[in-house]
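#lab-general

N.A. 3:47 PM
ok so I finally got the sequence cleaned up, no stray characters, all 127 residues accounted for. can someone with queue access submit it? mine expired

B.Y. 3:52 PM
send it over

N.A. 3:53 PM
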Amino acid sequence: QLQLVESGGGLVQPGASLRLSCVSCGSPFSIYNMAWFRQAPGKEREFVATISWRGGTTAYADSLKGRFTISRDNRKSTLYLQMNTLNPEDTAVYYCAATRIPYIGSLSNSSAQYGYWGQGTQVTISP
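B.Y. 4:20 PM
back already:
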């Protein structure tokens, strides 16, 4: 079993930056593709970014390219999301997730492909 715990959320002003972290324990972190999703109030959960298990390949939601960066440190079993130039539309609960099975060669933006989820961390952008 893979257990995921997010941190780094908070209340910031528009234009600010935040870095979210997701620490893993349990099964080896380094063998799973990882992703960030978010869910705003009254909206469905949406894909943010994903990274391959070796960390060499990434993919992003089109609307977030250039502002958000996903990365991982397999030695620390930690996933990161660097978020820059935040705006109120980025307000949401952010979740990290790991794929259901390890060593997957292709990236996915579908939540159905992810079987392990953290509890989420709240990010609020407000003046």
